[in-house]
Amino acid sequence: MSTKHVFETSNGLVDKALAGTVALNPALGLYAHHKVVYDKTHDRSKVAILAGGGAGHEPSFAGLVGKGLLTVAVSGEIFASPSAAQISSGVDLAPSDKGLVVVVNRYTGDSLNFGLAAEKARAAYAAEGGKREVAMVIVGDDVSVGRTKGGLVGRRGLTGCPILCKLLGAGAQADLSVKQLEKLGNVFVENTVTVGSSFDHCHVPGRSKDPVERAALADEAVEIGMGIHNEPGVKHIENKPEPSELIAEMLSLLVKQDDADRSFTPFAEGDEPILFVNNLGGMSVLEMNAVVDEVVSQLRKTWKIEPARVYQGTLITSLNAPGFGITLINHKRASQDAGVNVLELIDADTDVAAWPGVLRGWSDKASLKTAEELETESTDIIKKVQETGFSVSGSSLKGKAASSGPVNGDSALVGKVIETMCQAVIDVEPTLTKYDTIVGDGDAGETLRHCGESVLAAFKNNEIPLDRAIATVLGISATVESNMGGTSGALYGLFLAGLVQGLQSSTNDTSEVATIKHWAHAAQVALKSLSNYTPARPGDRTLVDALTPFCETLKSQAESGADAKTALSAAVDAAKDGAEKTRDMTARLGRAVYVGETKEKVPDPGAWGVWALTAGILQNF
């Protein structure tokens, strides 16, 4: 597979891609600051549909915005979930007086960040009077992740997600309510199955081109069930079989009913499912059409199944991966259970850029807006929403919480802590990238480094208050929410939100100076709060394996009367010990679940990052 790119670095690539996407359709708006694409012409009397995820899967999801499909799409960096702050801006840019349906693929970071934004939207809509509703549908259609291996994680979301967005967008145009659309979405997921195959991993611009470092597949190899972030599949074949054999095995995973681990959707002789054959990004149309022919032929001959609709195209990609996916939807069963005609919705008109025929919005004169005009337009909309007092986005430093809780006794020390903490996660990036390349998708180090750089820049620009403990945390939190995507971004954001609550409950005296006891109490509250949003517990091989011993040790040391240096030193040692222990653990959550056992035993990247961050704090004591 080629590792050559027009843009040889990922820096700024997503921003340029979104600007190009909006240039294809004058009806679209772009809030570049938070990577949000939205339909400016959406009818406010109809439900808005919001979706998103990491970049690298285009046209999902920014390229799917338009009439009859998505109302809003929010993009993260390549393979990293957008932050809750980004998604909150997307909520405020969703023009609907009826409500919102959030659609997200089942990846931990996406589920957490979009879930957090959905909760904030519910609170804002309730305060507004409750006329608008919010629902969230999580899509998992990948049969390569069976029930046993999926465990707590569940099935990954693949091509089913953009297809569902089409159904919900058409349903919204047909005046279905939020609850009706939510039911349709959940029923659709139950009746949709997908499996993919790829002949190599995709290549992310800016990353190593060395075949060993990027874990390239051998020239004749193929992986059935490879994920859209290069996750290993259900079966690795060193010498790829004939096309008919490969497709036969994929169809068996989709249709076979006696596989208790992977039989998620019933299909029977005479069923007329909807068939989608999706290009993962690097296949020629010539081969894709040949794949369609082989799939249809085998469905007819082997399974006695005649598809009611056949689609071939590029709906959700893995950058330039040379592979394809097959999706089957039991629309008859879904229609019956949802009380909605699924075929009518799939056939409904749309003018989305990823589909041919975007006709609205053009005039006989040049009408494209400049980047500045687009940003001003989006900013003005968000400001108007914020002025109502029911915004989901906005600065937390303007609220009452920033002036509550204890004061910082030494502002200069707080500043130094921020600097060394940020520098520590910047310096550890190469190590985390190495670890995550082995056990994940390689972006853990880049994500944490980018966050550290952003917080450091905010500090140097005096955007993080140093006078009060809660204001300091809120300042850091605002930067983290805006600049750290993925699962880790959501977890850090939730922990910081819990830290604020912990500091608030640590004292009623707003003149009291924050000590190690205040911070230890707050850390324990934050840890408990975090546990409400993630099933991750010590032993699951996640950042929780380092965070839990850090918080618990800090609390026990503070309660025993230890000074700040002693307490922090013990807590940092506990964090490192917890991170080290993950070397021999089997992952139960996150993308590492799909990777399985590896020859090289490395710590969990997230846990190692937590240790590095806490070690950075300790440098000042």
Automatic annotation (TrEMBL):
The keyword Repeat appears for this protein: no
Binding residues annotated for substrate, in chain numbering: 54-57, 110
Pathway named in the protein's UniProt entry: Polyol metabolism; glycerol fermentation; glycerone phosphate from glycerol (oxidative route): step 2/2
Chemical reaction(s) catalysed: D-glyceraldehyde + ATP = D-glyceraldehyde 3-phosphate + ADP + H(+); dihydroxyacetone + ATP = dihydroxyacetone phosphate + ADP + H(+)
GO biological process per UniProt: glycerol catabolic process
Pfam family, one: Dak2
Residues in DhaL domain copies: 412-619
Keyword vocabulary terms for this entry: ATP-binding, Glycerol metabolism, Kinase, Nucleotide-binding, Transferase
InterPro entries: DhaK_ATP, DhaK_dom, DhaL_dom, DhaL_dom_sf, Dihydroxyacetone_Kinase
Chain ranges of the DhaK domain: 9-355
Residues at the catalytic site: 229 (tele-hemiaminal-histidine intermediate)
SUPFAM superfamilies with a match to the protein in the record: DAK1/DegV-like (SSF82549), DhaL-like (SSF101473)
Example of a GO cellular component annotation carried by this entry: cytosol
GO molecular function: ATP binding; glycerone kinase activity; triokinase activity
Lineage: superkingdom: Eukaryota
Alphabetical list of PANTHER family matching this protein: DIHYDROXYACETONE KINASE 1, TRIOKINASE/FMN CYCLASE
Protein role: Catalyzes both the phosphorylation of dihydroxyacetone and of glyceraldehyde.
Family to which the UniProt record says this protein belongs: Belongs to the dihydroxyacetone kinase (DAK) family.
Protein name: Dihydroxyacetone kinase
